[in-house]
């Protein structure tokens, strides 16, 4: 009985102009389906009753005892503004609805938030670079509330997002709607539109079964130290406002030497797990103690828990804790972190950039890692999944109009990576800690961990180094059109960017030759540090004939297309000279490619520690201490001697005492994103003992000359 409006008429009535009825239908959104638009289509033959659908409406009357006749009648009238034309007034569109919860209604218990609900597309290929949408109540006073302020991002590197929806305990049972708004869509060519906001999502608030709170494994409680934390889990849901659980000893087991920390667990809005420890003083070993839970608070009616539990007092282990990270599945943006230990316990750990490892204040200290983690006991802070998601969303919002600047900003942000977590370890077998999926390629990371097995011994410190794979080599696309073309290179780039699904700013014309009978254009596809494959691998995944056909469909002539992976010669030193003059120490250096040369000096350097390109480029010494006043950098031209000099006064500063000075020079190419530098084993490096005496012993004459030849 949809689309029918009823006017009860209780007595015989004469209809006049005062009975005009206006029905306004607001907020009509595009339907999921329509009809192909064809100006030559005979719609009157397409629909059996075309006038009924598009131009008329009908009033039906039913005879009753008030009527003067026993016959029913119907009246047909013209429809103002094509009142019923909506059905046939929409045509099939190529713009696709985003999908929420696989287009299924969402079941919600009042007083809770749901599990994570997926937003995605009904397709294997995401055609846009970035889409941001916002959720809100369909009715302005609706009860629904959304995680992350209702704003969600999808991208070509992460074509899905997740959200939670909740409602307060006071919500009336019934059916509600989520209304969606598309905030922004970034296409590859900068102008195409592929997606629309999801259709309204049905949320059914109902009195679902009460959720039973799961109590984690209870291990033996050692004397005079905290027990292994015991976790209470709500499963996939969480409270809307909150509730709390009190923990206390059963009356028959009361003992002033037994405590619970904390003795009240607060499950606040959005929290689905909380833990507590048992603390004992001197007490009888192997004793069984019973304790109880009670629930109270705003959302307590949605949850239940088994009231009585017990624990035993005894030793878990006397062994020193041992642990090790096992890193698998290393990709450009992905690594899997696994853990091996010698028993049960708790690990407090972090994955950080190499830069944060050396330069972050207290970055490897236990208290700093724990303070930045979602802790097991106090349940404060963000989970590691939330930390990674925030970082990735910040990357998505970077300005990508200038691709080189964008990639440079991505690499700079990667140096600040610092993800932390605290996890239970349930046994000595190898267990998975976390899969990182949104790291930055060609970067070095360090895993740092502290494992506590509650033996009373100090936690075990361990670390591991890992580097993501590189995607920084560009790829070339060579196109030969079999006649001269009039379209601009910009048009070609826009079409190619849509076909191969890359940001148009990644494509750069590196050569263009136009002749009477053909046109040859070579383009370079720049790398993306957030993809898990190289530019060449991405191009290989496309059918070149299909690319050619798409160009023809857009008005380009037939062409021959090929792709290639150009070889990039590494930067290297050709030769160098070192001089000490009266006022300066001078380096004359010749390099293979245009780029940058940087030279650094260190007093009493520990040569057992390797000095890296990153350290020199970022103006640090081999111990990651600031060395900006000890480094000089210059632009270098290919196969031309360039000069770097240090003022001798630097080595005679007051109160400066040293036994040796080590000079190290590095050279990199001009890549603005991730420059290729001379390998660390080929740095120019020399250590001088008694440099002060050498300088004082000579005035204006050449003292030392070192010539190193690496290439002819």
UniProtKB/TrEMBL annotation:
Q: What is this protein called?
A: Uncharacterized protein
In its UniProt entry, the species of origin is given as Stentor coeruleus
Upper lineage: Eukaryota, Sar, Alveolata, Ciliophora, Postciliodesmatophora
């Amino acid at each position: 009985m949809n689309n029918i409006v009823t006017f009860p008429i209780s007595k015989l009535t004469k209809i006049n102009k005062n009975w005009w009825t206006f029905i306004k239908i607001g907020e009509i959104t595009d339907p999921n389906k329509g009809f192909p638009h064809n100006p030559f289509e005979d719609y009157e033959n397409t629909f059996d009753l075309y006038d009924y659908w598009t131009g008329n409406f009908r009033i039906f009357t039913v005879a009753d005892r008030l009527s003067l006749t026993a016959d029913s009648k119907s009246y047909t009238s013209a429809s103002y503004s094509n009142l019923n034309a909506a059905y046939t007034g929409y045509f099939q569109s190529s713009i696709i609805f985003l999908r929420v919860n696989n287009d299924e209604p969402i079941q919600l218990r009042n007083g809770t938030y749901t599990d994570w609900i997926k937003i995605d597309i009904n397709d294997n290929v995401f055609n846009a670079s970035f889409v941001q949408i916002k959720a809100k109540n369909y009715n302005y006073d609706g009860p629904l509330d959304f995680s992350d302020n209702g704003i969600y991002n999808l991208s070509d590197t992460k074509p899905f997002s997740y959200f939670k929806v909740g409602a307060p305990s006071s919500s009336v049972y019934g059916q509600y709607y989520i209304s969606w708004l598309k905030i922004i869509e970034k296409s590859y060519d900068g102008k195409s539109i592929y997606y629309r906001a999801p259709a309204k999502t049905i949320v059914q608030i109902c009195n679902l079964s009460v959720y039973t709170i799961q109590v984690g494994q209870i291990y033996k409680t050692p004397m005079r130290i905290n027990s292994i934390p015991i976790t209470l889990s709500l499963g996939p849901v969480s409270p809307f406002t909150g509730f709390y659980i009190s923990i206390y000893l059963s009356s028959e087991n009361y003992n002033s030497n037994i405590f619970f920390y904390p003795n009240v667990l607060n499950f606040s809005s959005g929290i689905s797990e909380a833990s507590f420890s048992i603390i004992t003083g001197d007490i009888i070993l192997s004793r069984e103690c019973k304790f109880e839970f009670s629930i109270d608070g705003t959302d307590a009616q949605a949850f239940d828990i088994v009231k009585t539990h017990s624990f035993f007092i005894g030793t878990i282990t006397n062994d020193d804790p041992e642990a090790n990270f096992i890193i698998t599945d290393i990709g450009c943006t992905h690594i899997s972190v696994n853990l091996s230990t010698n028993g049960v316990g708790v690990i407090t750990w972090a994955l950080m950039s190499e830069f944060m490892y050396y330069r972050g204040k207290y970055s490897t200290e236990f208290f700093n890692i724990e303070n930045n983690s979602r802790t097991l006991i106090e349940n404060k802070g963000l989970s590691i999944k939330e930390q990674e998601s925030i970082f990735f969303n910040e990357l998505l919002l970077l300005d990508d109009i200038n691709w080189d600047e964008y990639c440079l900003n991505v690499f700079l942000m990667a140096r600040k990576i610092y993800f932390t977590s605290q996890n239970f370890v349930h046994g000595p077998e190898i267990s998975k800690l976390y899969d990182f999926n949104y790291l930055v390629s060609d970067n070095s990371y360090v895993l740092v961990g502290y494992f506590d097995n509650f033996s009373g011994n100090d936690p075990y410190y361990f670390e591991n180094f890992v580097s993501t794979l590189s995607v920084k080599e560009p790829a070339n696309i060579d196109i030969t059109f079999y006649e001269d073309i009039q379209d601009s290179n910009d048009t070609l780039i826009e079409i190619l960017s849509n076909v191969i699904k890359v940001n148009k700013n990644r494509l750069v014309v590196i050569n263009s030759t136009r002749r009477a009978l053909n046109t040859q254009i070579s383009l370079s596809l720049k790398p993306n540090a957030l993809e898990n494959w190289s530019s060449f691998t991405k191009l290989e995944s496309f059918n070149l004939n299909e690319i050619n056909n798409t160009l023809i469909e857009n008005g380009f002539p037939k062409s021959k297309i090929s792709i290639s992976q150009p070889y990039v010669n590494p930067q290297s030193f050709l030769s160098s000279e070192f001089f000490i003059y009266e006022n300066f120490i001078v380096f004359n250096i010749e390099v293979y490619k245009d780029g940058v040369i940087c030279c650094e000096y260190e007093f009493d350097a520990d040569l057992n520690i390797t000095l890296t390109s990153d350290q020199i480029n970022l103006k640090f010494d081999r111990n990651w201490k600031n060395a900006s006043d000890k480094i000089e950098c210059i632009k270098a031209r290919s196969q031309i001697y360039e000069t770097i000099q240090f003022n001798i006064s630097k080595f005679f500063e007051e109160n400066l005492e040293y036994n040796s000075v080590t000079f190290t020079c590095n050279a990199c190419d001009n890549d603005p994103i991730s420059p290729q530098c001379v390998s660390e084993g080929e740095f120019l490096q020399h250590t001088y003992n008694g440099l002060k005496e050498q300088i004082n012993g000579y005035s204006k004459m050449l003292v030392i000359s070192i010539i190193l030849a690496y290439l002819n």
